[in-house]
């Protein structure tokens, strides 16, 4: 993220929490799950996620295939998920002409960065990508 990027206070808090949580993720799926837990509690992203029923725990026992556990440790040198998400959020904010990054920008960035991993996670929580996008669109008006 550029040094001149302005973060909404709730987005700054979410990024701070994410920077402490992501090093403990074992796979991209784990990172996506951490982002969801963080964002559902902060700002307009949290309002949207809670409005579509995303709770603390998934409705299904496991969002990931059983082989997830055997994938091993997700190599640290191959990831900077907080940086990737923050950079993408900044691009999203710039495209909409905003002066700063909000939690909705972070959520949209997470959806892009994690793609199918995040989609499976939403499904485990009883919703889907389309419903979340619809909710974010309703909130924008």
Could you describe the 3D structure shown?
With 141 residues, this protein is mainly α. The protein has a single domain, classed as Clp, N-terminal domain (Double Clp-N motif, Orthogonal Bundle), CATH 1.10.1780.10. Helix content is 59%, strand content 3%. It contains six helices and two strands. The protein has helices at 9-21, 28-39, 43-51, 81-95, 103-124, 129-140, and strands at residues 6-7, 100-101. A two-stranded parallel sheet has the order 1-2. It is globular. Residues 66-77 have low confidence and may be disordered.
Number of domains: 1
What top-tier CATH class fits best? Mainly Alpha
Which of globular, elongated, flat, extended, rod-shaped describes the shape?
globular
What is the CATH architecture term? Orthogonal Bundle
Average pLDDT works out at 85
Major sheet description: 2 strands, parallel
Strand order of the largest sheet: 1-2
Gyration radius over CA: 15 Å
Order of H and E elements: EHHHHEHH
Helix content: 55-70%
CATH superfamily: Clp, N-terminal domain
Q: Between the first and last Cα atoms, what is the distance in angstroms?
A: 27 Å
Q: Assembly type of the shown chains?
A: single chain
Low-confidence stretches: 66-77
Percentage of residues in strands: under 5%
Helical region count? 6
Q: Count of DSSP E strands?
A: 2
For this structure, the CATH topology is: Double Clp-N motif
The secondary-structure class comes to mainly alpha
